[in-house]
């Protein structure tokens, strides 16, 4: 056959150098955001059983961890608190001496260049494990909002660089923006978990953050995995309310949503590569069933290809190590 009859796509795949030249998407260490689970107490480094390689760390051990991150070139972390005490209204989330507030002050003092993103939610701090206050057996939207705003302001006061509200109450961007502005934090951006599905992929996180709801589920506030158009309504309202970044979560099963939101909104798009996505890969790798490095790089580049600018991922340290090696 002559090459008039068909097109030779393989020409551009002929060597490593050729493939590198025509590669359309890349993972950079600067794209990665690493989650940290911080506990009260001293000298605690406890591996999360369902997340090999991920630890709950006490406050006194985070400096060592962050030195390691800085060496790898990872420039941002998202903080989750694992408090000793919980109550009905999640006081630990907005207390000046809350675990995330203490951690933020310490990190910003010792590592001023590291970007600290504060996850703004109540579920790790409430005795019932829901993301807001309970009224008539459901999470009350408007009463939860004022506590969320209080949480955001206390995190900003502690030095957080970015506020990331994740509880899926309607109007959270509006009330948080207003509260931050009134408290003098007009310069602090909001990274909104705009599109957050009620997902079974969060299972291991709830072990790590000790935030499994005591009754019911999160389906009255998190989204139905079957829905697509609903994601566009969520993203549009968060944009109108002033979000600076949009998070889509989980990532891997929702690449179609990432792509569409990328097309619709010109802000940085963040994919949250969640705990269950991490645990599945780790479990298969530990069994020797897959090539962990190749698989992780493939899944992260698929998130970039879908349109994500940034990726929150438990694989961040491994990926940064591999990128350094190559
Ligand atoms: C809620 C929150 C959750 C995650 C991040 N923030 C869990 C939930 O809604 O139950 C999940 C992250 C993951 O699975 O990695 N504060």
The succession of helices and strands, N to C, reads HEEEHEHHEEEHEHEHHEHEHHEH
The CATH homologous superfamily corresponds to: Aldolase class I
- Number of discrete domains: 1
Structural class: alpha/beta
Q: What is the CATH top level name?
A: Alpha Beta
Fraction in helix? 25-40%
Main sheet attributes: strand count, strand direction, barrel closure: 10 strands, mixed
**Shape summary:** globular
- Which ligands does the model contain, each kind named once? ligand PBG
* C-alpha end-to-end distance: 40 Å
The fraction of residues assigned to DSSP E strands is: 15-25%
User: Which parts are unreliable, with pLDDT below 50 for 5 consecutive residues or more?
Assistant: none
Q: In the CATH scheme, what's the topology name? A: TIM Barrel
Q: Could you explain how this protein is built, in words?
A:
This protein is an alpha/beta fold and 326 residues long. Helices cover 40% and strands 17% of the residues. It is built from twelve helices and twelve strands. The protein has helices at residues 16-22, 62-72, 91-94, 99-110, 141-158, 172-182, 203-208, 229-241, 255-264, 275-286, 292-306, 316-325; strands at 32-39, 45-47, 55-58, 76-82, 115-120, 134-135, 138-139, 162-165, 191-196, 245-249, 269-273, 310-313. The strands form two sheets. Strands 1, 2, 3, 4, 5, 8, 9, 10, 11 and 12 form a ten-stranded mixed β-sheet that branches. Strands 6-7 form a two-stranded antiparallel sheet. Helix 4 runs parallel beside helix 5 (141-158), helix 5 (141-158) packs across helix 6 (172-182) and helix 9 (255-264) runs parallel beside helix 11. The longest helix is centred in the middle third of the chain and has 18 residues, at 141-158. The radius of gyration is 20 Å and the shape is globular. The protein starts with 15 loop residues before the first helix and ends with a helix. Bound molecules: ligand PBG. Its EC number is 4.2.1.24. Catalyzes an early step in the biosynthesis of tetrapyrroles. Binds two molecules of 5-aminolevulinate per subunit, each at a distinct site, and catalyzes their condensation to form porphobilinogen.
